[in-house]
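Bench notes, afternoon.
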Amino acid sequence: MKNIPRDPICVMRNATIVSLIAVVCLLVIPSFAEIKFKDVPADHWAAKSVYDLVRLGITSGYPDGTFRGTRTISRYETAIFLSKLAEKMGAGDAAKIKEDLRSIKDDIAALKRSGGPVRLSGAVEMNAMLANIVAVNGVSGRGPVVDYRLISSLEKDIGESATVKVGLDTMDSGYYGGTRDLTKQMLDLEGDIKMNPVDLGVAGDIFNAPVDIKFTAGPGVVQHTDATGFLSSESGVCYIRPNTGLSVSSKIGEVSLTGKYLVKSYDPSDSGKVDTNYGSLSAGYVIDRLPLLDSLYTELSAGFYSKNPNSGGPRDQKWALSVSAEVNSKFAITGGLAVGRPENKTWMAKLGMEVRNLVEGSRFSLKISKIGSEFVPAELLAEEIGETGYDAFMRPLENATVNLDYDLSQSVSDKLVLGSHGTVRLSPDLGFGPDKAQSLYTLQLGFSYLPASDAAIDVFYRVHKDVPAEETTDLVGMSVRFKY
């Protein structure tokens, strides 16, 4: 691929920002005691910039001695950062910088009005697996399998408040020569329009965020089926793609609201007639400064499925409450409860936890879920795929199961990460054995080597056991991924 010339406005903007930082650094004499963050070693690519801010008194990090450079910054933290920066500058310098920033803003606005350049991004993934080396009980085949996956996105701004995006995802088309329909399964489209409430004639401050309207066209969840006959752990893996439909979101006060209408399936005759409809409404709220918690996010949602409504087809509804809480910088918890039709056995409960940096560079998460035997109606299994969530290998969870999923990683260095993840599926009474229809486990361990920020090599070993089928399979794999 040829190199795309850098946009001159972007170059000018970046140069100006670098100059501003240099001016600020020269204005202030360091007067703070030396601070060293545990997560910013001296050889880190951003270490100089981070410690320049420390010497300026702009930041001192977190009380536990970390900088948390990958954490999302809030508006409050941004306000404090800019306020401290302004205090360190003289009035004349502040005026000059303000003028430069205004110029940059005008340049960016002009770029948006012109539509701007088309942004290309994506990833390429190539995999090689050698199946059934040791564990071959109940399996009739073995051997090597190769596949690839290409994900690409073209995005363009249309004016200041609209964006259009075209996506391509080959998914499992790279498996052993398999193909999927290009226009109906591999391509997806998205149009995003942000509307100012004032333009809609809404007075006052009822809405404190733009009304975000998204139109999408895509295949929805696409599920892989193993055609080799001996890669059991790969069968059922899902690719999460956009559905065809419309979503509208905004905020009223501190409450985030989102409404959706999605097409879950079409008429098999390819007439374009919608077969199954799905509509939902959700409301979310963030509660700050709670005792023992940094923050708590709660969301209440309601969803409705309708298949062939004109001919009295099956219907289903879901009500769900989910919560996620940041206890502190190292520990977070999630939970959820969903109920379906007003009948027995149509509920699902989930609980999860995440522990970060218990040992420097470590991350551990655990999820537990219990699903009723009729949470997803049998007549809507294809349409509600993913409604129950997914296991550690992106396979949909099933009715009448208890599931335990974990993910563990440990950074050895900036370029090497050890990792393991797995899932165990039990019967509703927590049974596990040949007489329990749902019993299975899949475990994987390996490492990732990161030669560059946009490239990775994964090497792993995986074992899968389907207990009732008396089938045990394993595989050794290598995956090479590039981002662009």
